[in-house]
Amino acid sequence: MAIKPIVVHPAEVLEQECEPVTVFDRKLSKLLKDMYDTMIELDGVGLAAPQVGVPIQAAVVDIDDHHGTIELINPVIIEKSGSQTGPEGCLSFPGLYGEVERSDFVKVRAQNRKGKPFVIEANGFLARAIQHEIDHLHGILFTSKVKKYIKEEELEELEG
């Protein structure tokens, strides 16, 4: 188990377009495993490669539901609909939270760690987490979408 240090804002890697993954090898598998371990250790629900200093289009998402761990390599949103607004935070912005509007439904085409293409559909919180991580792969930070910042105490009240 390897916990990687999280890159925090204002690191340049967080605001750049990441390179598509073209080599699906052991190195990629190890990176994904380390990203998952890091995300779980820090109580996150998603982690993108640039957040551990690797500017490639790879992310992991796990909101602890029936989907389990979702590895997204070179993900592209091919369909989206609806709207939801809710609180978001980010491991690269410790202690910072804000209300963000996202699509309520997304259909995403991506590849798995072996390069095999797949499509996943997600609603609600899972759709939110996936969109947040895909944004990271394009240098888009949640802070650019915040409608209103939330204090940590307010966040606990919202989660009830």
TrEMBL record:
Belongs to the polypeptide deformylase family. InterPro entries: Peptide_deformylase (IPR023635), Peptide_deformylase_sf (IPR036821). GO terms for molecular function: metal ion binding; peptide deformylase activity. The keyword Iron applies. Keywords: Hydrolase, Iron, Metal-binding, Protein biosynthesis. The active site is at 133. GO terms for biological process: translation. HAMAP family: Pep_deformylase (MF_00163). It is an enzyme of class 3 (hydrolase). Binds 1 Fe(2+) ion. SUPFAM superfamilies: Peptide deformylase. Removes the formyl group from the N-terminal Met of newly synthesized proteins. Requires at least a dipeptide for an efficient rate of reaction. N-terminal L-methionine is a prerequisite for activity but the enzyme has broad specificity at other positions. Pfam families: Pep_deformylase. It catalyses: N-terminal N-formyl-L-methionyl-[peptide] + H2O = N-terminal L-methionyl-[peptide] + formate. Its EC number is 3.5.1.88. Gene3D superfamilies: Peptide deformylase (3.90.45.10). This is Peptide deformylase. Coiled coil: none annotated. Fe cation binds at residues 90, 132, 136. It comes from Metabacillus idriensis. Its cofactor is Fe(2+).
